[in-house]
Every structure is written in C-alpha cells, then in structure tokens.
Amino acid sequence: MARADADTPMMQQYHRLRDEAGDALLFYRMGDFFELFFEDAKVAAGCLDIALTKRGDGVPMCGVPVHAAESYLARLIRAGHRVAIAEQIESPAEARKARGSKALVERAIVRLVTPGTLTEDTLLDSGSANWLAALARVGDESAIAACDISTGRFELVACAGHELAAELARLGPAEVIGAEPVPGIEARWGHEGFDSLAGERALKRRFGLADLDGLGGPGRAELAAAGGLLAYLDATQREATAFLGLPRRVQRSAHMAIDAATRISLEICRTAEGTVAGSLLGEIDRCVTAAGRRLLGTDLAAPLTDRAAIEDRLDLVAWFTEEPIRRDRLRSALRSLPDLGRGLGRLVAGRGGPRDLAALRDGLGGASDLAATLAATALRPRLLDDLLPLLGGHQTLIEELARALVPSPPLDAAKGGFIAEAYDPELDTLRSASSDGRRAIAELEGRYREATGVSALKIRHNAVLGYHVEVPAKHADRLLAPDSGFTHRQTMAGAVRFNSPALHEEASRVLEAGGHALTLEQAHLERLTAHAVGEAAPISTTADALARIDVAAALAERAGEGGWVRPTLDEGPCLEIEGGRHPVVERALGKSGDRFVANDCCLGASDRLWLITGPNMGGKSTFLRQVALIALLAQAGSFVPASRAKIGLVDRLFSRVGASDNLARGRSTFMVEMVETAAILAQATPRSLVILDEIGRGTSTYDGLAIAWAVVEAMHDEARSRTLFATHYHELTRLAGRLPCLSLHNVRAREWKGDLVLLHEVAEGAADRSYGIAVARLAGLPPTVVSRAKSVLAKLEAGRDATGGIAAGLDDLPLFAAAMAAEPAPDPLAEALSDIDPDALTPREALQALYRLKALSHSSADG
Ligand SMILES: Nc1ncnc2c1ncn2[C@@H]1O[C@H](COP(=O)(O)OP(=O)(O)OP(=O)(O)O)[C@@H](O)[C@H]1O
C-alpha cells in the first residue's frame, strides 16, 4: 500500500491500524459509517456488492452504515474473511478539548471478528455449536483446545497426531488455528502463545486457580493448545472477555471414534452437500430449543462408549415415551424459552443488552417452573434426578431482573426505556420531569399558535438545533419582528426556525432529566449485567440441563413417530437388528408413497463378516448404512428404527464407499479409496464396526478384485471387526469356503415377464447373477444398446465357463495368514550394504561403516 509522507494525520492513523489488523479487513469508524480503503475496499465492495468509490485523492473506498454493520459482517465472515473493527474511542468534542480544534479523534481496534469468535445471534447458526479449535503438538503428544464462546463451552482433548483430524471432524469447528502447519489439516497457522508454560499461566489466571490438579492435570500439549487458544481470544476480543466455562477434558475413549470420511459417508450431521436437511440429524431432530438442537448435533457427532452413561440417556428417553401428554406439556413449555446460553455469552463478552437480560429472566424463570413440574412426577429416571437441581437456584437473580426490567425491553440500550417503573424512585422522578417538560412543550405550541395567529406553527426537534419553533416562510415576518419574543435561528427554503426563552427553558429541563435518566438506566444495566455474569457458570449449567431434557423429549417424540424401539446394549461383539430401517431413505420413500422394506442383520463372534452381493439399485448401500446408523443412534442414547436391536458396544465406526468422487482434494478417486481403506486396516479393532461399500471398484477389474479379496481377508483375519462388505465382484463369494466367520448375503431381485423387480430384501446366500443389464434397461438405456450388451455378455460368460473366468486359480491361493508368513522378511544387513556408496566415503567413514555392518551382522545373527 502506497504511503506518502504527505499523508494526512487521519491517513497516518489509518495505516497504523491497517498494519495492526494484519490479514483482516479493516472497518474504520467515521461517524455513522465503517469505511474501508485501498485493497480492503475493493475486496469488500466485491463481496458485499456495494459501490466502490474514490476519495478526492484517488484512494478507493467503500462504506457500510454502522446500524446495518452486522449483516455486512455476516457476509464477509461467511465468505472466509476476518474483520478488524476500529472504533472511535473518544468523541470529537473530547478530542477538541484535549488536543485543540483540529485534533483527530482517537481510534483503536476494539475487536477482531473471526468465524470462531462470534457471539451475535445474526452471525451465528442457532442450531449448531460454533467451535474455535487450537491445535498444538509437543513432542509426540498432540492436543486440541476448543471453545464456543457463544455458550462458554471449553474442551481439552489429548490425542495422537494421526487422531487430530478425526477429533476435528467431531467438533466441526468454524475456525482452526495453530502455530506450525500439521500435514493434512487446514488451519490458520503462525499464531502465538502455543507454549505449555504460558498456557498453564493463562489458565490459572483466567480461572483464578492455584494449580491445575482440579482439571485432572492436563498434559503439556493440552496446556500449549489452551495457551494458544487463550492468546487468540485475547487478541480478537481485546477489552471484552470471552465467555469460557472451566475446561472439560474429553476422554477420547469415552466416545465412539468416527473419522471424517465416515462422517461424510454416513451424512451424520450434514449431507455430502453440506446441508443439515437430509442428514441423520436433520431427519431425527424434533428439538424445540436451539440449545437442544446444538446438543443433539454434539451427541450424534460423539456417541458414547460407556454403557451406564448410554443407559441413563435411554432411561430418560423411555420415560418420555411412556407419557406422551407429559411430554407435550413439557415441550410446549420449553418451546417458549429463550436461548439462555447465547444470551449469557453476549453479556459476558460485554456485547449484551437489555434483551439478553430479559432472556435470562424468562429462561431461568421457565427452568425453575419446569423443575417444579418435573419434581412432582413419580418414578423419575436417574438422569432426570441429576438434572432437576441444576434447573433451579437462581431465584435472587430472577426476582431482581423481574423487578428491574420492563416485560419486553428493546434490543438496544442506547435510547433507554428498559428499566421498569417503580424499580428506582430516582429514575421515576427524572422520567416524570422529562415527560412533564415534553407536555409543557406541547402546550407551548398551542399558546404560540394563538399568540402569533400562525396555525401552521410547529415545535420540532432535531439533532442540530434541538427543540425549535418552525413556521412557513410566508408567516415568518410576524416572528421576525424585534419585539416578538422569538430569536431567529435558521432560514430554510420554505420555512424559518426560531427559538424562545420559554422553549429553551423547557427544552433544557427535558434534556437534562432525560440525560440523567439515561445515565441511570445505563448504570442499572451495568450492575444487572455484572450480577448475571457473576453467575455465568451455574446459569450455563442450567442451560445445559434444559438442552439435555429437550433432546431426550425430542428423541422420544421421534421414536413415537417412527415406531422405534429401545436398543439393548451388550459388551460382546454382537450386532443383532430385526426389522431395521434407514430413517432418511424411509422418509424419502414415504414422501413418494413407497414402502421401505425392513431388514435384519445378525453379526456375532462366529459370523462377523457379511459379504453382500446383489443388483445395482438393490439396496446394498442403504442396508450397510442403516446398520451403521442404528449402532450410532443407540450409542448416542436414542431409540432406533428397528423392531428389535441388540448392540454390542462399538469403539470405532468406519464407513467407506469405493470410488466416491473427491476431486476437490486433488487425489484420484481410487487413491482416496485406498488411503482410506489403509486407515481402516490400521485402526479397526475386534470391537469396531466397519462397512465397506464396493471397495476396489475404482480400478481395473483384475486389480480391483485382487484388492477387494485381500481387504476382505485382512478384515477377517487381522482386524476381526464386525464388517459388512458390499461388492459386485461375485468371485469374492468363493471366500465363503475359506473364511469361517464370513457369510454370504444378497439383496433379492426377480425377473418377472422380462422386467426386473427389486425386492430390497436382504437374504442369505450369494446373488444368483448381477442383473446389471436389467438395471440398465430399467434406467432407460436405448434398446439397441441393451441388446448389444446382452450379446457381449453372452460371449463373455461363455468364455468364463470355458476358462474358469477371472477368478480361476484363486482357489489354490494360500490363506492370508500363511501368505503373510511366507513373505520373506527384509534383511537389515543387505539393506545397510545397499545404502553405502563407496565412492562417496572418506577412509575414516569407510572404517566406521565397516564397524556398523559388523555390529549389524552380529545382531541379526542373535535375533
Ligand atoms: N430397504 C429398502 N426398501 C425400499 N426401498 C429401498 C430399500 N433400500 C433401498 N431402496 C431404494 O433403492 C434405491 C437404491 O438403493 P441403494 O443405493 O442402497 O442400492 P445399491 O444396491 O447400493 O446400488 P448400487 O449397487 O448401484 O450402488 C434407494 O435409493 C431406495 O430408493
């Protein structure tokens, strides 16, 4: 950016702030506008579709009015920008008084608005959490510190480096920051404060702790991540304090591990297109509060692995399913409650207003009423008993707010009018003085009309003149007369304006009383805010408890709608589902009047790998996904779409679909498929659930079949997870004879009078044929192409029958484990030798190399 020495003081100030803003756009406050200059102006004008103009000196600029700034900010943030807000921190009058008549108003950056540090309702999605995640690595430890300052949530997660991506996928953060790049993770790098000592200090200072034992002694990586996070919050929030509860250390083993690819493939909280509608969350969400919706998303993103904790949630859902009337009443009470958590977040951040206080009054009041209703019910489940006490305990604050505030206060505190009558006698006196004054002014208008005989005379008010008398120009003479008692102030095109001593006196009265009243109201606002902020922790606990109740009641509602059942949980590696359905597909079919065919699945220790064949469009993918979703729902504490389900707890869930498009990430589809399959083979355990859909499809038939074959064997012999494997390679069915825990299943289809009928029924045994051509015909491929394909197929099949086909000879293949043993182990001595380049060695290095080789030869002889 060009910077001339001749810059005006204002431009010098601008450049200083511009430098401080770094890569953020700078909103530079000038009166009622935020202005942007230079490159910022070009970027913002393009993104916001507003006029780009030029100043007199040719500098590009554009601006947004302060009162509408939030909606512009929202668009910039959504487009991936960050925005630094430079406010005037003194008034022009103060500047003049302090530094002379030409003094420049002092400005400072008061906040950096970034996607992960938002608190405004208009900028946030009410139905999902808004995480900011900070990543740190110290030695081989990695950790994430994450917070949602709109609700005060704060988590620390320690994990191995390769697990970072999966943990981030669980959180789905709006913004990720770190110090140094971590391969494979997209974030804003180069931030400071990622230091374990600084982190420890910052945590202690922030929460007033003498030591961190109460937090369970976080590790060095967690402290470093917390340090980076807190430093970033300080840098972005400046004077305001971000709302943070005490950090909760998340035990990763307490949650079902689900990596990013699985989340995308199962469309858990978002569809592949990124919408909530059409995802599992969108389909099952019957929450009536925004906080409930956020919690349901969190629950689905992180199903539990602890049986007792899941049973507690299920007990509560069951309790709500038993009493639909009670549930309805509770839900309508919840529906009317405001979003406590986010209102509190704004108050703590110093961006709250009277309406946020009213939200606390109504939300906390509603919570305590709800607690009373629920306490009167019998046979309460344990979780509810734990939640009840958390709903109450705010009586003093509720009463104070109820007395202090008018029923529905304005959003903006600036004009006052939010403190109720009879709360503060002094305020009442000032208010009546000011309204008496206004009445006196109105009376004055009548008297002046009579006295002057100008019926069009009006008393008006504006920001420049304050109260004044205005008459049409043609009647001005009467008031301009020297003895009229009026003083001329301003002549306009059609009107003339005057002042008078009586008006001046009344106006000062109004102004003074009004000004004092406003100051008094502001003082009350500050005090009430401080009171509420002082109780931030218990208030957010109440908000969480309400959300938990909403989620349970909503799940009961959904279970009732769909005839879902309570799953039984088991510690063993079983998975028994009778009459299972895919909630999203079932809904889509229902809309077009089609019936969903329910299917069973029964995996156990001796039958843990199902190989599923069948025609395209037969329902293989749907079946695979429904099994995974049922396990996931069960462990999230929900009833499931089935007539019976017994779920052996799943530690990790994997779902892969062969050859799915992932060109955006710059890898070929087949490469992605193989990388992801490798990840499963490396991580799946006997307690995992793995669904593999047409793995190997993305390459040539021979390679694909070979890979699919080897993957099935490895899943069976090595990972030993519960596995569903859907494939079009019929040759794989030969594995049934070789692998004892593998069984064959197919989605049934029939040809009837030459037409293909897909039954969507999962049955035992392999599919008799593939029906590919029949499906192609169903899809409307031209008859000539279909009949040509048929004759090509006949030739191919004849060839296969003669030679045994592409799988001929596979039966002679040694078993997977035997083949692994037979593979020769690498010889370290030979490898070391081949690494040596004799011509590149000095005599001394050559001697050292000889010693090394000798030592190696000894150790391999010993081994
Ligand atoms: N159980 C079911 N009951 C009724 N309709 C179903 C069922 N399962 C699937 N369908 C219907 O069949 C369509 C295809 O299902 P799906 O994608 O699961 O088939 P597929 O066997 O995986 O196909 P492909 O091999 O071509 O990938 C679905 O969109 C749905 O409309």
Lay out the secondary structure:
Layout: H1 9-21, E1 25-30, E2 33-37, H2 38-48, E3 53-54, E4 60-65, H3 69-78, E5 83-88, H4 92-99, E6 107-113, E7 132-138, E8 141-148, E9 153-159, H5 164-171, E10 175-178, H6 196-207, H7 220-237, E11 248-250, E12 257-258, H8 260-266, H9 280-284, H10 290-301, H11 307-322, H12 324-335, H13 340-348, H14 354-375, H15 382-391, H16 395-404, H17 425-452, E13 458-462, E14 466-472, H18 476-480, E15 487-491, E16 495-499, H19 501-534, H20 536-562, E17 568-570, E18 575-580, H21 583-591, E19 599-603, E20 609-613, H22 620-636, E21 644-648, E22 652-657, H23 669-683, E23 689-693, H24 701-719, E24 722-726, E25 742-752, E26 755-764, H25 772-778, H26 783-803, H27 816-822, H28 828-835, H29 843-862
Parallel strand pairs: 1-5, 7-10, 9-11, 12-22, 17-21, 20-24, 20-25, 22-23, 23-24
Antiparallel strand pairs: 1-2, 2-4, 3-4, 5-6, 7-8, 8-9, 13-14, 14-16, 15-16, 18-19, 18-21, 25-26
Bound molecules: adenosine-5'-triphosphate.
Family: Belongs to the DNA mismatch repair MutS family.
Protein name: DNA mismatch repair protein MutS
Keywords: ATP-binding, DNA damage, DNA repair, DNA-binding, Nucleotide-binding
